[in-house]
Amino acid sequence: MKRNKSTVALFLAMLLSSCQGGKVEHPLEDYRSELSFQEETFKIMQLTDIHWSYVTILEQSKAYMDAILKNALSEEGHIDLVVITGDIVLNANPYILKSLIDYLDGWNLPLAFTYGNHEKEGTWSTAYLNSLITSAKNSITRIVDGDNVYGETNYLIDIKDGSNLLWQIYCLDSNSLAHDNGLTYQYDNIHQDQVDWLKRMAKDSEVGGTNVPSLGFIHIPPKEMFAAQEEALKDPSKHIMGESHEKCCATKLDSEFFDAAKNINMQGIFFGHDHSNDNVVSYQDVLLGYGVKSTPELYYYEDQEGFDWIGYSLIELKKDHRWSLKHVYLDYDDPSNVKHSSTWESSL
Amino acid sequence: MNKTTRLCLKIVEAILYFFAGVMLFKSFHILSADLQDFSHQWRVLPIEVGYLLPFYWLILLHLLLYPRNGSKFYRTGFVNGIILTSVGAIGILVTSIYWGCGVYFFGDRSFSVIFPLELYLFYLSSILFGVYLFLYVRKNKDAEREYFPFVGNKVHYVFASILRPLFIVFSCYFSGALLDGLFQNYLNASSISYWEVYAIIIWNFLALGYYEFVLTNRGEIKINLSTKAKKIISIANFLLVTSLMVACFLLNILNPYYVAENFQMWIPLDFMGSFEFFLYLICLPIFGYSLFFLIHAFRQKQAA
User: What is the ipTM for the molecules in this complex?
Assistant: First the structure.
């Protein structure tokens, strides 16, 4: 009987340990990538919700994204970083996934990925996805396997001018689904261990006791987006740019992420997730903003004139810690038909 | 039908069950990528239908192996022979037009490594199966064969004609999903905490076999078990299934991300309104089936 009990205990222990995984703390350096100012400004292109799937006509989608890149390069002269804020795929197979990564890698621009809520719906393992994302030759994405930080794409990009750290880009995995009431799921949030990691990274990055300005990129909007949008409705000066054409599907779960981000001098948090929303609002001196959906896959906002409000966001960082933001939209049927939002610029 | 022929056909049926499962899984995956507005159906419908054909063959083969009476056997063969041939011919025609127009092209591995050749294979097989069936039932309309009239009350009839096909759809789908995951190596197969889900999926197949060969005990292949043996098996089966089910839900409580992290590829949760249905879909059909086995074993004793 005693032996039976210990066998059961051993089995349960194995079950629980395999359920939790052997998570260990990794050196903070493992989460760090580095890029430099090549010119006077550092330009980040944010793409989001590409959503390649079984039904995507890959060549057509590539042609549209070619147009996006061509437009960005002709307007900006240079792009220093492409941040892709999640949902790069939907239901797809490894071939479709690899085709997309190879295609983006062919741009020969530094690529930073964050995962969305759909990345795990394809017929591949997370390990395969991670290895594909990190092994692309232009990827600066860091994924630390077996660490004690929840999610996958939690990492930091230092942006330096020579040896001077001027800006930081935090990429966090906003995960996918969390329990709600036992019958339905709700969108997940940034977990506490990710927030703790963020604080540790910020502490480790302090220059003279303070943090340089940073931006955050995630997929699912934080809960604060609800309040931020309400505030912007009451006070139009808080509305920075963009429009909202569907209900906000931010996480409804509490997280300390926003407060922690604010405290480490994060000046903007950008995300995707809601394809028909691209509004950016100011909330407690932090910009909270949707990116612009970057392909027509799944659904997007098309106005009455038939113009497709899809494209990319462009963030320009300056060496004096000022920065600017604009949205660029390219019609899917005629990508030469380009519209721009007004450009928002930070003050010193 | 002699015993060897039936045995061969039952082996074919078993192989077809797993193959149809994989194709059913693939077909549903393609459909679920277009659930938003079905705007791509004009292009992917021939693929979805082609991939569903093995499941159709499976059902048809089963119906032909266990005809209820002569007229049903003839009707099943005649009508489905025509349907199979028509679907096959239309499928080949549409696939050829799409290939000719460049909608489909060889080397597009979005669906398979040999795409679109597998569609020709499925549709052509369908035509061959359909024509053979049509001719066979016409030629052998009055031939002598064993029939399997339905035996049981109304509850049993409902179980057999509604719930059982549903169970087969779910079990076949998840068997296909499991096989696809193992072949493509994307499952957390090394982690013991997922074994109970895999065990339930395998158990579905075994339960179907038990129903087929032991419970209904019909046809040329019979496994005769005493009532006592049936009782023991059904109790053991019920306890095992319940334990596996409890383990699944327990793990889901221990790790709230248990399903979301690992089984999203099996059920496109998000597009089903973020429903947390996976564990119910996996567990409840086999639980119901096991309960049925249990009740059946005990009722049999009472009848005796």
Answer: 0.91
Q: Which of A95, A120, A185 is facing B265, going by the closest CB pair?
A: A120
CATH of the domain at A98: 3.60.21.10
The answer to whether the Cβ–Cβ distance between B186 and A124 falls below 8 Å is: yes
Decide if A42 is inside a domain. yes
**A54 at interface of B, judged by CB pairs closer than 8 A:** yes
State mean pLDDT over B2-20.
91
Q: Which domain holds residue A100?
A: 27-345
pLDDT digits (tens, 9 = 90+) for A165-215: 999 999 999 999 998 877 888 999 999 999 999 999 999 999 999 999 999
Which pLDDT band holds residue A157 (cuts at 50, 70, 90)? very high
CA distance A315 to A47: 11
The ranges assigned to domains in chain B are 3-139, 154-303
Helix (H) or strand (E) holding A12: helix A2-20
A95 touches chain B (CB under 8 A): yes
In Å, how far are B52, B110, B267 from A56, measured between CA atoms? 21, 9, 20
The number of distinct structural domains making up chain A is 1
Listed in sequence order, the residues at least 6 apart from B89 whose beta carbon sits closer than 8 Å to its beta carbon are B123, B127
Beta bridge partners of A111: A82, A139
Cβ contact A53–B33 (<8 Å): yes
User: Is A130 domain-assigned?
Assistant: yes
Question: Does residue A312 fall inside a structural domain?
Answer: yes
How far, in Å, CA of A35 to CA of B96, rounded? 51
Displacement of CA B39 from its chain's centroid (Å): 28
Q: Cα dihedral angle (A193, A195, A199, A204), rounded to 10 degrees?
A: 60
Question: Using the beta-carbon criterion (under 8 Å), do B268 and A121 form an inter-chain contact?
Answer: yes
Q: Which of B254, B256, B273 sits opposite A16 (nearest CB)?
A: B254
A-chain residues within 8 Å CB-CB of B188?
A: 125
